[in-house]
Write a structure and sequence with these properties.
mainly alpha, Recoverin, domain 1, two-stranded antiparallel ribbon, 4 strands
C-alpha cells in the first residue's frame, strides 16, 4: 500500500503531464496553421550537415540563433522521447511526431499533403516567422523535461518509493501495462477529479511506442530521473525495441490478413457484437481503434519515406493512373493501373480506399486528395 503523500505526488505528476501536453499541442497547431510551414523544408534547414537526421548539435545551434540556450543533455532528452529506434538521433519521421498536431486530424492531413518546396521559393521574412515558431516549440519541449526532472526527484524522495510498486499499484487489469481504465480507476479511488481527455493526454505523453498503453519501461522513462538510467539499461531497451520492430514488420502482413478475414468473412459479427455486454463491447471497440491507429502510423511513415526520395514526384505517379489527364481517377482506372504493376485487389477494397481519400464521396480520386 502506497502512502497518501506518494499517491498525491504521482497524481500531480500525471496531471502536469496532461497540462503540458495540452500546451504543447496548442503550440504545434499554431506552427502548422502557418500557411508557409512545410515540415520537410524545416527539417532540411535544421539538418545543416545534410545527414538525414538531427543531433543535439543541430538543435543547439538552431535554438541559439533565437536566443534559446540549453544544456545538450536536456536537448538529448527531447530527442530520446521521440527516438523510436534508440539511435540517439532524430529522423524525419521522428521529427514529424514532435511537430505535427495530434488532436486536429484535418490539420495534420493538410500538412502531410503540402507540396515540398525549396527555401529559395520563400521570402526571408516567411522563413524567419516559421523558424521562430519552430524554435519556440522545441524550446518548450526541452523546458518540459527540465521542469519534470525536478518533480520526479521529489517523488523519488518518498520514503516508500519503489518504481515497480508504483507501476503495480496502477496496472490493475493487466499486470504488464497501464491502460486508460487503470488510470481512471486510480484517480477515482483517490477522489481526484479528472476528465477522459486529460487521461488520453497523459497516456499520449508517456506512451512511447504508440500502442495506447504504458509498459514498465515507459513508466520508468516517465517517472525516473534520467541520470538513474545506466548505459546497460538503455542498451537493453534498444535491443528490445529493435526485436519488437522486426517482429512487427515480419508478422504484420499475417496479422492484417487475419483481422481482414475476421471482419469480412463473418456475417454475424454485428449480431454477436450487439449480444455482448457493454464492457466487452467497449473492450472490442478500443482494440479495433488501437489496431487502426497502428495501421495509420505505418501508413504515415511509408508516405514520409516516399516523400523523402530524391526522384519522388506525386504528379507523375498520379498520371500513371490518370492516363487521359482528366484530373481524377475512376475505380476502373485504379484497378487497371494496379494490375499493370502486378497488384491485384478486390473491387470492394478499391472502393473503400477511394472513399477514404475522397471526403466528398464522389467515387473518384482527385489529385489534391491523393
Amino acid at each position: 500500500m502506497l502512502l497518501k503523500e506518494t499517491k498525491l505526488s504521482l497524481l500531480d505528476l500525471f496531471c502536469n503531464f496532461a497540462e503540458e501536453e495540452k500546451d504543447l499541442e496548442s503550440i504545434r497547431q499554431n506552427l502548422c496553421e502557418t500557411p508557409s510551414f512545410e515540415p520537410y523544408l524545416a527539417f532540411r534547414r535544421l539538418d545543416t550537415s545534410n545527414l538525414g537526421f538531427l543531433t543535439t548539435t543541430n538543435l543547439n545551434n538552431f535554438l541559439s540563433n533565437y536566443n534559446f540556450f540549453h544544456n545538450p543533455i536536456k536537448i538529448q532528452c527531447y530527442i530520446n522521447h521521440y527516438d523510436q529506434d534508440f539511435d540517439q538521433k532524430l529522423s524525419y519521421s521522428e521529427f514529424l511526431q514532435s511537430v505535427l498536431p495530434q488532436d486536429n486530424s484535418e490539420l495534420r492531413f493538410s500538412i502531410s499533403q503540402r507540396p515540398i518546396k525549396r527555401a529559395e521559393e520563400f521570402e526571408r521574412a516567411f522563413i524567419e516567422e516559421i523558424e521562430k515558431k519552430l524554435a519556440f516549440l522545441l524550446n518548450r519541449e526541452i523546458q518540459f523535461y527540465i521542469k519534470f526532472e525536478r518533480q520526479k526527484r521529489n517523488l523519488l524522495k518518498s520514503v516508500d518509493y519503489d518504481g515497480f510498486r508504483l507501476f503495480s499499484s496502477l496496472a490493475i487489469r493487466n499486470k504488464e501495462e497501464i491502460g486508460f481504465e487503470d488510470l481512471k480507476v486510480f484517480f477515482m479511488k483517490n477522489s481526484y477529479e479528472i476528465n477522459d481527455f486529460d487521461i488520453v493526454l497523459m497516456l499520449r505523453r508517456i506512451d512511447l511506442n504508440g500502442d495506447g498503453k504504458i509498459d514498465f519501461n515507459e513508466f520508468e522513462d516517465a517517472f525516473l530521473p534520467k541520470n538513474k538510467y545506466s548505459n546497460e539499461k538503455q542498451n537493453s531497451m534498444a535491443m528490445k525495441a529493435t526485436e519488437k520492430n522486426q517482429n512487427l514488420k515480419k508478422n504484420y502482413p499475417k496479422i492484417f490478413d487475419e483481422k481482414k478475414e475476421y471482419y469480412s468473412s463473418n456475417n454475424n459479427n454485428l449480431k454477436n457484437f450487439k449480444n455482448k455486454g457493454m464492457g466487452q463491447q467497449i473492450e472490442e471497440i478500443v482494440e479495433i481503434m488501437n489496431y487502426f491507429l497502428k495501421i495509420e502510423k505505418i501508413y504515415e511513415d511509408l508516405k514520409q519515406e516516399l516523400a523523402m526520395m530524391d526522384d519522388f514526384n506525386l504528379f507523375d505517379i498520379f498520371k500513371v493512373f490518370d492516363k487521359t489527364a482528366k484530373g481524377f481517377i475512376l475505380p476502373t482506372e485504379l484497378e487497371f493501373g494496379l494490375n499493370e504493376i502486378h497488384i491485384n485487389v478486390e473491387k470492394e477494397e478499391m472502393l473503400v480506399f477511394i472513399r477514404t481519400l475522397n471526403v466528398k464521396t464522389e467515387g473518384k480520386i482527385k489529385y489534391f486528395f491523393s
